[in-house]
Amino acid sequence: MSEDEGSRKNLRMPDEDEVFAEVTNMLGANRVNVRCADGTERTARIPGRMQKRIWIREGDIVLVEPWDWQDEKADVTWRYEKADAEQLREEGHLD
């Protein structure tokens, strides 16, 4: 399959209160360490609606929503497939 502009997918982009992040460490108890695009390391919680449906591994690109009252914590809201993460890198959304 050719990698031309016709193969581009419309991907979910972050809302105003979400940031891109990369999973750096699995902590257990439905928590992961993430390195966010704003340069902050956070502990992110995987919500119940995602736990059994979507498997998250180290190195995955996710969207997180930082907590208003505690900046070092966040909730995972979305996980990108590998191909989608590559598309985000090619378009310059990720470092």
CATH uppermost class: Mainly Beta
User: Globular, elongated, flat, extended or rod-shaped: what is the shape?
Assistant: globular
Indicate the multimeric state. Answer: single chain
Helix-residue proportion: 10-25%
User: How many DSSP H or I helices?
Assistant: 2
What count of domains describes the coordinates?
1
CATH level-four homologous superfamily name: Nucleic acid-binding proteins
Organism: Salarchaeum japonicum
GO molecular function: RNA binding; translation initiation factor activity
Pfam family, one: eIF-1a
Function: Seems to be required for maximal rate of protein biosynthesis. Enhances ribosome dissociation into subunits and stabilizes the binding of the initiator Met-tRNA(I) to 40 S ribosomal subunits.
Explain what you see.
This protein is mainly beta and 95 residues long. The protein has one domain (14-88): Nucleic acid-binding proteins (OB fold (Dihydrolipoamide Acetyltransferase, E2P)), CATH 2.40.50. Helices cover 14% and strands 36% of the residues. It has two helices and five strands, in the order E-E-E-H-E-E-H. A five-stranded mixed barrel has the order 1-2-3-5-4. The two termini are 26 Å apart. GO terms for molecular function: RNA binding; translation initiation factor activity. Keywords: Initiation factor, Protein biosynthesis. It holds the Pfam family eIF-1a. Seems to be required for maximal rate of protein biosynthesis. Enhances ribosome dissociation into subunits and stabilizes the binding of the initiator Met-tRNA(I) to 40 S ribosomal subunits. Residues 7-81 form the S1-like domain.
